[in-house]
Amino acid sequence: MIKFIDYVETPNEKHLGIASVEVDNILLRYKVSKNKEGNGFFISSPSYKIVRDGEEKYIPAFYIDSRSQEEEIRETVRKHVKEKIGPLLPSDSPF
């Protein structure tokens, strides 16, 4: 079962905010960032940086094993975040 918990804006960060969802009694948090055009947003799992042999690589903090469950989680987050920030998006936004 997927339950949307909340969305918290992060005005002093590069991303727009953090969305939290509960999936089978596990709390997951996703970053919500503006898209390149600035007229919408995208969702990503948090990541951490690893430097190996002088190269920086970002690794997701968690993976969802089921592709269909991952898409269901993302759709749930998109729906609720859109309700929260929708009025802040430009009128030509695809969201």
What are the key terms here?
95 residues; alpha+beta; Arylsulfatase, C-terminal domain; 4-stranded antiparallel sheet; two-stranded antiparallel ribbon; disordered C terminus
CATH architecture: 2-Layer Sandwich
Radius of gyration, in angstroms, nearest whole number: 14 Å
Which whole number gives the mean pLDDT?
88
The chain-level structural class is: alpha+beta
Strands, count: 6
Give the topology string: H per helix, E per strand.
Answer: EEEEEEH
- The number of distinct helices, counting runs of at least 4 residues, comes to 1
Strand percentage: 35-45%
Shape verdict: globular
CATH class: Alpha Beta
Structural domain tally: 1
The spatial strand order of the largest sheet comes to 1-2-3-4
Question: How would you sum up this structure, described in words?
Answer:
This protein has one helix and six strands. The protein has one domain: Arylsulfatase, C-terminal domain, CATH 3.30.1120. The protein is 20% helix and 42% strand. The protein is globular and about 40 Å long. A hairpin with a 2-residue loop joins strand 2 and strand 3. The chain is α+β, with helices and mostly antiparallel strands and 95 residues long.
